[in-house]
Amino acid sequence: MTLRVTLQAKGPIPLDLSFTAGKGELIALVGPSGSGKTTTLRTIAGFWQPETARVEVAGVTWNDTAAGVCLPAHRRRVGLVFQDYALFPHMTAAQNVAAAMGDLPKAVRAAEAARLLRLVHLDGLDHRLPADLSGGQKQRVALARALARRPDVLLLDEPFSAVDRATRDRLHDELMGLRAELAMPVVLVTHDIGEAQALADRMVVIDGGRIVASGAAAAVMSDPVALRRLGLREIAAMLPARIVAHEQDGVTRLDTAGGPIWVPTLTGEPGQRVRVRILAHEVILSRDRPAGLSAQNILAGRVVGVHPGEGPGVLVRIAVGEAELVARITRRSCEMLGLVPGDRVHAILKTMSVARGHVAQDAHPADR
Amino acid sequence: MDWQALRLSLSLAVWTVAILLPVSVVVGRMLATRRFRGKGVIEGLVMLPLVLPPTVFGFYLLVTLGRNSVIGGLWQDLFGHQLVFTFEGLVIASVIFNLPFAIQPAQRAFEAIPNSLREAAAASGMSPVTALMRVELPLAWPGVMTAMVLTFAHTLGEFGIVLMVGGSIPGETKTIAIAIYDRVQAFDMQGAATMSSVLVVISLVTIAATFALSARVGQRPMQ
């Protein structure tokens, strides 16, 4: 099950891009508004037809303008989660989910709808109308409905942008928990770089309808071209870590390849693997291991790259074990420290600079 | 009390509603969801009966449907009698005259359905017809019902056009509104009063039904 997309359009939003997503792979389309992310998604779903399009899913051509093939939207096996939920307001949660299973015998639908609602932690709310559900609950129903279609590709169009921060963090965790169930390619459109980093296997940065960078989140995050589009304050690395203990004073101790760090209390059992999003502008660098400092998260690493930007800033990439951190410091500081690749360095991080939403559950615990 | 006229009026109203129900759904939905050249012209034409005096509208219908017109001539060839001054002619006039009452509320109801719901229906594998039956009509139904109630009530009360196109042939084109006029002309105020009160009751019931339905529209959890 692979998704292959090639699109070209002159307007209303110009497009010229091509990408693929493999079985079970979650790719995030990120970029500024009006860059063509949602249009790309709508083309895959069959709601829009650009001048040139080729969409192939699981070996089946859904759209090929050259060959005159264009499958109508309702005949494409696509699960679509909308930003505004788009639940059918006159149907209960269970009916909404069952509505996407018109191809199944009636007897099967109710049981399957109940199973999917359990999967998204909504058991007991089957008979609620959308108007009686919270934003987070609505979006869970929408996800269950998208899965009920048994899609060959799952499309998520800014699915978490209409809910509050805390709900969003919880939905992120739940989506990561569901990843094992998702055998199809997943395309997530988002303008939230942190969300893309937390959820995606691969990031595709779109600007003006073109792909300006794509690859693993870590690679994109140190690509100066991509960074210009994403905004410097969004630069961050995802540091793999493992929960060691929840301590009395409201912090959780994590182990990383560069040493222990403490972050505000997390949910999760000791031993569980997580990834911590560390914003580049929050990282302080020091040649010597500092003492007498309030910050206690001091990670030992080695400089692997120094990338001067256009402004006063420099991006320093630091290898910490297998992982990589990025620090954005001033050119002045970098020259003062005389940092060059290969140097040993300590990265210092305030506990309080890690928000709850900066910690992502690990998608593939078995791989690591 | 002219029961024959009342029966004729009710029959005319039922026929008009029966014909306009599918028209209001199809045309109302099309005007609400599609963008095409000449849409403004169509919307304007649909509204025309609202602004034209009934006698003017009736006059043009008389000319268009009359024996010497293309439509009237064709009807004469097919059925052996003329179209104007018959019940069939009255139904056609009534359908045309009621277009704004039938289409406008339906169009508004379909416009109130967010486009993302149509897309969600398609993404859920529903064909356009299934989506119409399972998603759009249940949501637009109060609006469509309002349209039909308005059409029904309006047909009962229409006077000018009915007189122009139908004349006043008892049992064929003499509706209750015309019967009331006849009674007044004959100084039978008692008869006119009885029939008027019957019309008032029917109108009140239909208005009450419309309000009840609109209240339900308000309660609908629309985003």
Describe this structure as you would to a colleague:
The complex is a heterodimer of chains A (368) and B (223). A six-stranded mixed beta sheet of chain A has the order 7-8-9-3-10-11, with helices on both faces. A five-stranded antiparallel beta sheet of chain A has the order 2-1-4-5-6, with helices on one face. In chain A, strands 14-13-12-15-21 form a five-stranded antiparallel beta sheet. Chain A contains nine helices and 21 strands. In chain A, helix 5 links the parallel strand 8 and strand 9 (186-190). Chain A folds into two domains: 3-231, Rossmann fold, CATH 3.40.50; 237-367, RNA polymerase II/Efflux pump adaptor protein, barrel-sandwich hybrid domain (OB fold (Dihydrolipoamide Acetyltransferase, E2P), Beta Barrel), CATH 2.40.50.100. The longest helix of chain A has 14 residues, at 106-119. With 368 residues, chain A is of the alpha+beta class. Chain B has one domain (3-34, 41-219): MetI-like fold (Orthogonal Bundle). Chain B has helices at residues 3-33, 39-51, 54-65, 70-79, 87-97, 99-111, 115-123, 128-157, 160-166, 176-185, 189-219. In chain B, helix 1 (3-33) runs parallel beside helix 6, helix 6 runs antiparallel to helix 8 (128-157) and helix 8 (128-157) packs antiparallel against helix 11 (189-219). The radius of gyration of chain B is 20 Å and the shape is globular. The model of chain B has no long low-confidence stretch (mean pLDDT 89). Chains A and B meet through strand 7 and helix 4 of A and helix 7 and helix 8 of B.
